[in-house]
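Module 6 notes. Inverse folding takes a fixed backbone as the condition and produces residue identities as the prediction. Think of it as a translation problem where the source language is geometry and the target language is the twenty amino acids. Below is one complete input and output pair. Work through it position by position during the lab.
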């Protein structure tokens, strides 16, 4: 086909889509104007006044639809304000003049695109829908908390087959914030202030076995996420609830993976006391580097030699030997806080660094899943250049993003009992 022919074909498809959408909008207007259409509550209640034929525009996935509906008003007594209602709006599930299907697309695009203006462009390109970025942002902030709450309360997901090893992993990453959100908060900037706040991410996933080399295999599509700016004492129960929802109680073994941050092991103690606790191997190796450099000097051959020597110890459950040798070298030099802190990291996590044993059992020893999640779930949406967030704004968009990735998003919108749901069943 020639270039001109391809362009003509694209124009034909687009023109047909526009025409079909216009016909669809006309059919919807006729349907909702039908006097025989049964609408719950579409009659006067005692004391109400009815005002017929009130006009409203509804934005749908087909385009703008003109509604004529009745308005019922209950006058207030004394200084109390009166109350009004539009039964058709309620039956259709309208949200700020948008149909539920339109609101669903706005929320999904707002969470999954790189920004609200990008979401607006995506809706225009993929569905021919004209929605301003600021309207998408308003919709995300309006529905975000409800979607997040629905996802947290959704029914348990029964495992397809018994789970050999069930994993929970948690991490945190900084999100750039508006000035009012970090006022008087200490941070890592030169003046001691902060321009970020930590959002926590937890993930759970399952493992059924290992490959021929004995390396663990994560079950496909088994990973789900929970995110929150909550403190660890409140975040722990969130990730525990997600773990139980995903069938943790039926697993033969439960493993909790983390990078060694103290708050992670508080969650482990209070919410996963029965789990095998493992410090991410690669973070442990980074701390070996810090320990060797604190003792022997940054970039020295001796530091490099001991770094490799001690890594070999870790791989065969000999973290205790690392601690003994480090303390022996420390006794021959001047003590400093940096070295003591580096040794303390291994002392505090000794039982979580039995990497030889963990590998023999076929467990994951790295927290790469949750670290990748920090980039894909959080970083790709709320850490782009030039972004600054309120806590609630970031919380809402990340809550929707997790619901989409976890497969809970569609269920929120499939609420039974709305007029459109009943009409779709009848069709």
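Target side of the pair, the amino acids:
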């Amino acid at each position: 086909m020639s270039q001109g022919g391809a362009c003509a074909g694209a124009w034909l498809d687009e023109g047909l889509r526009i025409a079909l959408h216009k016909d669809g909008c006309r059919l919807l207007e006729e349907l909702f104007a039908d006097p025989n259409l049964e609408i719950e509550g579409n009659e006067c209640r005692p004391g109400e006044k009815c005002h017929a034929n009130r006009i409203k525009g509804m934005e749908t996935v087909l385009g703008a639809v003109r509604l004529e509906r009745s308005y019922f008003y209950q006058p207030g007594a004394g200084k109390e304000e009166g109350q009004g209602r539009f039964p058709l709006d309620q039956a259709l599930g309208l949200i700020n003049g948008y149909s539920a299907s339109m609101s669903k697309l706005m929320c999904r695009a707002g969470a999954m695109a790189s920004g609200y203006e990008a979401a607006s462009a995506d809706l225009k390109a993929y569905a021919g829908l004209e929605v301003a970025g600021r309207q998408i942002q308003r919709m995300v902030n309006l529905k975000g908390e409800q979607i997040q709450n629905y996802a947290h309360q959704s029914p348990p997901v029964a495992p397809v087959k018994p789970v050999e090893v069930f994993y929970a992993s948690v991490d945190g990453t900084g999100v750039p914030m508006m000035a009012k959100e970090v006022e008087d908060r200490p941070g890592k900037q030169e003046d001691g202030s902060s321009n970020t706040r930590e959002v926590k991410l937890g993930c759970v996933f399952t493992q059924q076995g290992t490959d021929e080399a004995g390396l663990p295999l994560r079950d496909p599509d088994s990973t789900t996420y929970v995110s929150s700016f909550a403190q660890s004492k409140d975040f722990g129960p969130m990730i525990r609830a997600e773990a139980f929802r995903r069938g943790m109680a039926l697993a033969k073994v439960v493993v909790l993976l983390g990078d060694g941050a103290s708050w992670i092991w508080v969650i482990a103690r209070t919410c996963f006391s029965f789990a095998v606790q493992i410090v991410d191997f690669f973070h442990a190796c980074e701390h070996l580097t810090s320990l060797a450099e604190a003792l022997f000097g940054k970039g020295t051959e001796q530091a490099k030699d001991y770094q490799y020597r001690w890594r070999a110890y870790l791989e065969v459950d000999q973290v205790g030997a690392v601690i003994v040798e480090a303390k022996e070298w420390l006794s021959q030099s001047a003590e400093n806080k940096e070295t003591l802190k580096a040794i303390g990291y291994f002392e505090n996590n000794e039982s979580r660094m039995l990497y030889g044993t963990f590998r023999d059992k076929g467990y994951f020893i790295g927290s790469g899943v949750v670290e990748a999640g920090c980039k894909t779930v959080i970083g790709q949406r709320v850490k782009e250049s030039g972004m600054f967030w309120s806590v609630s704004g970031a919380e809402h968009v990340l809550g929707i993003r997790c619901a989409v990735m976890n497969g809970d998003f569609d269920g929120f919108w499939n609420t039974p009992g709305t007029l459109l749901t009943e009409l779709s069943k009848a069709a």
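Reference fact for the lab report: DSSP finds 16 helices and nine strands in the chain.
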